[in-house]
Amino acid sequence: MDFLKRLTETPGVPGREERVRELILKETEGLFDETRVDPMGTLICLKRAGRREGNAAPLKVLIACHIDEIGFYVRSIDDAGRLRVQNVGGFDTRNLFARRVLVSTRSRDLLGVLNPTGKPIHIASDEEKKQVPKISDFFVDLFLPKEEVEKLVRVGDPVTLVQTMETIGDYVTGKCMDNRVASWVAINAIRKVGANSPYDIYYAATVQEEVGLRGAGTIAYDVNPDVGVAVDTTLSCDTPGIDKTESITALGKGVALKVMDSASISHRGLLDEFMALAEKKKIPHQLEVLPLGGTDAGTIQRAGAGRRTITLSIPTRYIHTVCETVHRKDLDAAVDLLAAWLAGERG
Ligand SMILES: [Zn+2]
Question: What is the pLDDT of residue 129?
Fold first, then answer.
C-alpha cells in the first residue's frame, strides 16, 4: 500500500504527469525489458512474452492506466496576489470549498487554500447560501504578498488538491484513486505473472485522460496492440440517497467488468473470456453498465484499424472528490484476474 500512497499523493494534472511517471519508472526498475516516453508524455513499458505458444509471434496486449488527475492551471493573478484557476477535468464545485492545494511552480511547491468568493455562513443571506459557485468564482490564497506571488507563480503553473491516503480497515481513501489505483493493479499483476505470459505486455501510463482520453490515442496507434485492456475506476453509488438500481457497482464485491459506458462497449468475446475466468478461479467480480463516462478503452478500441478492448474497473465511492474510496478486496481481485488472463489462463 505504500506504493499506492506515494502514487496518489504525487501531483500530476493532465499535461503535467512527469512526477508520477518518474515515480513509476523508479518503482518498476528491472521489471520491464524496454521503457520509453512518447511525445505526449505517456510512459510505455514492454515486458516481452516469457514463453511461446506455437510458432506465431506473440500477441500484443496493451494495458492502459491513465496517470493524470483532475486539477487546475493558474489562469491569472489578481491585484491582491490571489490566483484564479482553470480546471482540467470535471469537478463538482460543491466539493471544492475550503480545500488545501499545491501550486507547483518552476522553483518549488507552494501550499495554498482554495475557496470560492463570497461570505461565511454567519453573514450570508438565505439567497447567497443557495448559490452554487462556478470554477471561475474560486481563488487560491497563498498568504503571500502580491510581489512575492508574482515572482514565484506563472500563468500555466499546475494546481492540485492536497490529501493524504489513509487506510480504514479494508478501505483505502484519498485523492486520485482515479486513477493511480490502475497502475498499482497493473504493475502488481505484471509482477505476479513473472515470465509466465505468452503475450508481449505493454503497460502504458497514459496522459490527459481526464480531458478526453487523449494520450491513449497516440499509444494505441504506436503500439498497435491486438488487445487493449483499460484499467480505471468507476462509480460505486452504494450510499444513501441513490436507488439500488442506479448504484453501478458496490464496494467490496470484486473487480468490475465493464459491459459499456458512453465511450466504449467492451468486446463481447473478451468480456465472456474474463467473466468465465473469474468464475473458474472464484475471483469476486461484478458487471458494470455506466450510462455516462469513459475510459482509455474508448480511444484504443477505435485507433487505426481497431481492436478488441475491455475495461477492468475498480469500484470507487465519492469519485472526483479528495475522499475517493476503494476496497482492498476489489484491488486484489483486479490483480488476480488480470494476472491470470495475462498468464494465458482461460475459464
Ligand atoms: Zn479515470
Answer: 85
Residue 168 β-bridge partners: 171
Exposure b/e, 299-309, CB count within 10 A at least 16 = b: bbbebeeebbb
Residue 166 lies in a domain: no
Q: Could you report the per-residue pLDDT of 88-106, keeping only the tens digit for each?
A: 998 889 999 999 999 999 9
| Cα→Cα distances 152→99, 155, 198, 248, Å | 21, 10, 51, 44
Is residue 223 a contact partner of residue 44, using CB atoms and an 8 Å limit? yes
Backbone angles phi, psi at 192, to 5 degrees: -65, -40
Asked if the model's pLDDT at residue 79 lies above 90, the reply is: yes
Q: Give the CA distances from residue 242 to residues 92, 158, 172, 233, 238, in Å, rounded to whole numbers and listed in that order.
A: 17, 34, 22, 19, 7
Distance from Cα 280 to the centre of ligand 1, integer Å:
29
Number of independent structural domains in the chain: 2
- Catalytic positions: 209
- CA separation for the pair 311, 309 (Å, rounded): 7
- C-alpha 232 to ligand 1 mean position (Å): 5
Is 75 found in the same domain as 65?
Answer: no
User: Phi, psi (5° rounding) for residue 330?
Assistant: -70, -40
Instruction: Report the SS3 class of residue 231.
Output: strand
Ligand 1 midpoint to CA 299 (Å): 13
**Shared domain check, 45 and 34:** yes
Cα of 295 to ligand 1 centre, how many Å? 6
Whether the predicted pLDDT of 236 surpasses 90: yes
213: phi > 0 → left, psi -120 to 50 → alpha, else beta; which? left
Instruction: Give the pLDDT score at 125.
Output: 87
Distance from residue 225's CA to the centre of ligand 1 (Å): 21
User: Could you tell me if 77 and 63 lie in one domain?
Assistant: no
The owner of cell 475517493 is 324
For residues 206 and 64, is the Cβ–Cβ distance under 8 A?
A: yes
Q: What is the pLDDT of residues 294-328, one digit of tens each?
A: 999 999 999 999 999 999 999 999 999 999 999 99
